[in-house]
Design a protein that fits this description.
By secondary structure, the chain is an alpha+beta fold. The protein is 28% helix and 32% strand. It has five domains: 275 residues, Rossmann fold, CATH 3.40.50.300; 106 residues, Beta Barrel (Elongation Factor Tu (Ef-tu), domain 3); 71 residues, Alpha-Beta Plaits (2-Layer Sandwich); 112 residues, Ribosomal Protein S5, domain 2, CATH 3.30.230.10; 83 residues, Alpha-Beta Plaits (2-Layer Sandwich), CATH 3.30.70. An eight-stranded antiparallel β-sheet has the order 18-17-23-14-15-22-19-20. The chain has a seven-stranded mixed β-sheet with strand order 2-3-1-4-5-11-6, sandwiched between helices. Strands 29, 34, 35, 36 and 37 form a five-stranded antiparallel β-sheet that branches. The relative contact order is 0.08.
C-alpha cells in the first residue's frame, strides 16, 4: 500500500444495529476500489471484515475490523464495528478514533437500539454524523418511513437527503444525486439523466438541500435570498460546513444497497466532501498532574507525538497486535516510542496496515492515520504513546459496568495455572470485560456486557490454551442478625496430657451500617487479658464463611462480657474455639437473616413494550421508581434484587426482540424474604453434604 499524507486520509466509523448490513456494505466498497475481485457474503463466511473463526461460526461481527480503502488518491480508513449491544465497547472505541460516523440504518426495521447507542456515542465525541439508509432492495423496505423513523428518534436533528432512491424493494436499481441532478443506475460510476417521472420529486428535495447548505454560512444565506439558488460548489461547501458543525445538527442522508452494490460509489465520493481530513481533528488529553487540555487543529507530522491504542488482539501464533490512531506526529517502523501510561519505551518492530486479517507492511504512518504494531510487550488498550519529555495521556472513553457474569472453573490443573494470566490479558485488551476472585462466594467471576460477549471471551481463552467450564455464579448474599442475643460456650478437652479449657459468654447486637465490631466488657479478671484477642480471632474465623448459609457476616457487634479460665488448661487455641462456637450459637439465636444486593436498573425500550417489561419486573420483585418517554422510546427506572437480574439480558432480548437495552449498578442491601431465605439455606446444606 502506498504512503498517504494527512490530507489524503479520511477516518470513518461504520456503526448501526445488528443486521443493518454494515459488513456487506464494506464488501461493496472494497469491490468498487479493486481491493477484491468478488464480493463476499456473510452467509458464505467469505467477507473481509468478518474474518475471525468465531465471527464465521456465528455469522456475526464480534469486533471492529480495520478496512482501508484507496479511492481517487485518498485512503479511507473504515472501522467496521459490531452492531450487537454486547460489543458496544468496540463501537465506542472506534468512534473515539474516527473523524466522522456513518450510521447504517436498515430500511425495513428503521431506527433500532443499536442505532441509538451509536448515535449517543457520536454525540459524546461531537462527531459529524452521516446516515445511509441501507437494504433498500429488500421486501418491505421504505425510504420515507425510515426517514420519519430517524426524525422521530432524534428530534432536533435535520435529516437532509443528498440522494433519493430510484425504485423500491426488488426494483431498487439506482440513486439520484441531488447535487448534480444525475442518476447512478446499478453498480459503478456511470451517470445518466433523471427518469422523467422523478424530476419533480428530485427538484423539491434539491430545494431542501440548498436551504440546508445556505444555513451553514451567512454569505450563502445572503446569496440564496437574493438569487434563489446556489451553485453546485456552494451547495457542497455549505453542506460540508453544516455536516461538520455540531450545533447545526445537520445530517446528510444517503441511500444504498450493499448486497446489490447500488449507491455505494456516490457514498464514497461523498466521504471526500463530508468527512474532514484528520488534520482538522482536536483531541482531549490529560497531563501528569491530572489537568485536561486539548490538542488543537491543525495536526501534522511536526506536532507533538500523540498516538492512542484503541484495540488489542491476541493471537496464539501471531502474538499481540495493537491497533492505534495517530492524532499528532508520525511513527516509523523500528522507531522507539514512550508509553506514558506504563512508563516504558517500546520498539515498533513491525508496522502494519490491516485489511481485515491481511497484514500490509509499511515503513511510516503519518498524522491522522490508523495502523497496527505487532509484539509490543507492555502496551494495552487505552494507552498513549508520546514524547518522554512532555508526557500526556489521550482521554479514554468511559465504559458501562458489566451486565452479565459467569463463574469459571479450569478444566485441568494446567489450565488452573494459566487461567489468571490469560483472563488478565483478555481484560486488558477489552475494557468492557472483567474478571475477579470473589471471596464472598469463593468463585472466579468473569463479567461482560452480555452472554455472547462472555462466551466469546471463554472461546478466545480456549484458543490461547486455557480450557474453562462456565457455571452460574452465586448471588453475593450477606448474613446478619435482627435482634440482640446472648449465651455462652464452654470448650473442655481432656485426652491425656495437657487439656484445653475455655468458657466464653458472648452478646451479639445488630449494628446496621457499622460493619463488625468486637468489644470486651470483662471485669474482675475472670479471663486474662492475654486471651481476649484469642476470642476475637476465633470470631473472625467465622465472619468470612457465615453461620446459616455460608455467606460473609456483616453489621454485628460482638461483646464478650464474662467467662472462665483454668490455671493450667486454658490457652490461646482453647479461647479461639470457645469464641468461635459461642458466636455461632448466639448468632443462630439472634434472628439471623440473609441480605441481598439490590440494583438500580435503567431499561430503555420501545414505548409500546413498556407494559410488558414492567409486568416482567413485577414478577422479579422489582419496584418501579419512575418512567420517562422521549420520541418512541421509554425509560423505566427500577430497583430489582440482583438474584433476579443475573440473566436478564436474555429475557429482555426475548421480550423486545433485541430492541431493549439496560444498565444496572449496586444500590444497597436488603433483607431476603423468609421463604427465599429457606431455599438458600437448604441449597447450602445440600452443597455441604456433597463436599
Amino acid at each position: 500500500m502506498k504512503e498517504y499524507q494527512s490530507d489524503q486520509l479520511r477516518n470513518v466509523a461504520l456503526v448501526g444495529h445488528q443486521g443493518a448490513g454494515k459488513t456487506t456494505l464494506v464488501e461493496a466498497l472494497l469491490f468498487n476500489t479493486g481491493a477484491i475481485n468478488r464480493m463476499g457474503r456473510v452467509e458464505e463466511k467469505s467477507t473481509v471484515s468478518d474474518w475471525d473463526d468465531d465471527e464465521k461460526e456465528r455469522n456475526l461481527s464480534l469486533s471492529t475490523s480495520l478496512i482501508p480503502l484507496e479511492f481517487e488518491g485518498v485512503k479511507i480508513n473504515v472501522l467496521d464495528t459490531p452492531g450487537m449491544t454486547d460489543f458496544q465497547g468496540e463501537t465506542k472505541n472506534a468512534i473515539r478514533v474516527a473523524d466522522s460516523v456513518i450510521v447504517v440504518v436498515d430500511a425495513i426495521a428503521g431506527v433500532e437500539v443499536g442505532t441509538e447507542l451509536a448515535w449517543q456515542y457520536a454525540e459524546v465525541y461531537q462527531q459529524p454524523i452521516i446516515v445511509t439508509i441501507n437494504k433498500l432492495d429488500r421486501e418491505n423496505a421504505d425510504f420515507e418511513r425510515t426517514l420519519e423513523s430517524l426524525r422521530a428518534s432524534f428530534p432536533g436533528y435535520k435529516f437532509i437527503p443528498v440522494m433519493l432512491p430510484i425504485g423500491s424493494e426488488a426494483n431498487f436499481n439506482g440513486v439520484i444525486n441531488l447535487l448534480t441532478m444525475k442518476a447512478y443506475m446499478g453498480p459503478g460510476k456511470d451517470r445518466s439523466d433523471l427518469p422523467e417521472e422523478l424530476k419533480d420529486e428530485a427538484e423539491a428535495a434539491r430545494t431542501v438541500l440548498i436551504e440546508a447548505a445556505a444555513e451553514a454560512d451567512d454569505a450563502l444565506i445572503e446569496k440564496y435570498f437574493s438569487e434563489g439558488t446556489l451553485s453546485n460548489e456552494e451547495i457542497r461547501d455549505g453542506m460540508r460546513k453544516a455536516a461538520r458543525d455540531a450545533y447545526l445538527k445537520t445530517v446528510p442522508v444517503f441511500v444504498t444497497s450493499g448486497a446489490k452494490n447500488v449507491g455505494t460509489i456516490p457514498l464514497m465520493e461523498a466521504l471526500m466532501v463530508y468527512v474532514s481530513p484528520p488534520s482538522q481533528r482536536r483531541v482531549q488529553f490529560q497531563k501528569p498532574d491530572g489537568e485536561r487540555d486539548y490538542l488543537l487543529a491543525p495536526q501534522s507530522d511536526e506536532g507533538p507525538l500523540a498516538v492512542y491504542v484503541f484495540k488489542t488482539t491476541n493471537d496464539r501464533f501471531v502474538g499481540t497486535l495493537n491497533y492505534f490512531r495517530i492524532f499528532s506526529g508520525s511513527v516509523r517502523s523500528d522507531g522507539r516510542y514512550f508509553n506514558s501510561v506504563r512508563g516504558v519505551e517500546e520498539r515498533f518492530n513491525s508496522l502494519l496496515v490491516m485489511r481485515g486479517k491481511e497484514q500490509l507492511p509499511v515503513t511510516e504512518l503519518h498524522a491522522g492515520d490508523i495502523g497496527v504494531v505487532a509484539k509490543l510487550t507492555e502496551t494495552k488498550t487505552g494507552d498513549t504513546f508520546c514524547a518522554r519529555t512532555s508526557p500526556v495521556q489521550i482521554v479514554r472513553p468511559e465504559f458501562p459496568d458489566p451486565l452479565y457474569a459467569v463463574a469459571v472453573l479450569p478444566k485441568t490443573q494446567a489450565d488452573s495455572a494459566k487461567m489468571g494470566t490469560i483472563l488478565t490479558s483478555l481484560s486488558q485488551a477489552d475494557p468492557t470485560l472483567r474478571w475477579r476472585q470473589d471471596p464472598d462466594v469463593k468463585q472466579t467471576i468473569v463479567e461482560g456486557m452480555g452472554e455472547a460477549h462472555v462466551n466469546l471471551a471463554i472461546s478466545r481463552a480456549a484458543k490461547l490454551g486455557v480450557g474453562m467450564e462456565m457455571v452460574m455464579p452465586k448471588v453475593p448474599y450477606k448474613e446478619t442478625i435482627t435482634r440482640q442475643g446472648s449465651d455462652f460456650y464452654r470448650h473442655k478437652k481432656q485426652s491425656g496430657g495437657a487439656g484445653q479449657f475455655a468458657e466464653v459468654h458472648l452478646r451479639l447486637e445488630p449494628n446496621p451500617g457499622g460493619g463488625f465490631v468486637y468489644e470486651t466488657q470483662i471485669v474482675g479478671g475472670v479471663i486474662s487479658q492475654a486471651f481476649l484477642p484469642s476470642i476475637e480471632k476465633g470470631i473472625n474465623s467465622v465472619l468470612g464463611e457465615g453461620v446459616i448459609a455460608g455467606y460473609p457476616i456483616i453489621d454485628v457487634r460482638a461483646v464478650a462480657f464474662d467467662g472462665k479460665e483454668h490455671p493450667v488448661d486454658s490457652k490461646d487455641i482453647a479461647f479461639q474455639i470457645a469464641g468461635r462456637e459461642a458466636f455461632k450459637k448466639v448468632f443462630e439465636e439472634s434472628g439471623p437473616v440473609l441480605l441481598e444486593p439490590i440494583m438500580n436498573v435503567s431499561i430503555v425500550v420501545p414505548e409500546n413494550m413498556m407494559g410488558d417489561v414492567m409486568g416482567d419486573l413485577n414478577t422479579r420483585r422489582g419496584r418501579v421508581q419512575g418512567m420517562d418517554t422521549e420520541g418512541h422510546r421509554g425509560t423505566i427506572n427500577a430497583q430489582v434484587p440482583y438474584a433476579e437480574m443475573m440473566r436478564y439480558g436474555n429475557v429482555l432480548r426475548s421480550i423486545t426482540g433485541a430492541r431493549g437495552v439496560y444498565t444496572m449498578k449496586l444500590s444497597h442491601y436488603e433483607q431476603v424474604p423468609a421463604h427465599l431465605t429457606q431455599q438458600v439455606i437448604a441449597a447450602h446444606k445440600a452443597e455441604m453434604q456433597h463436599t
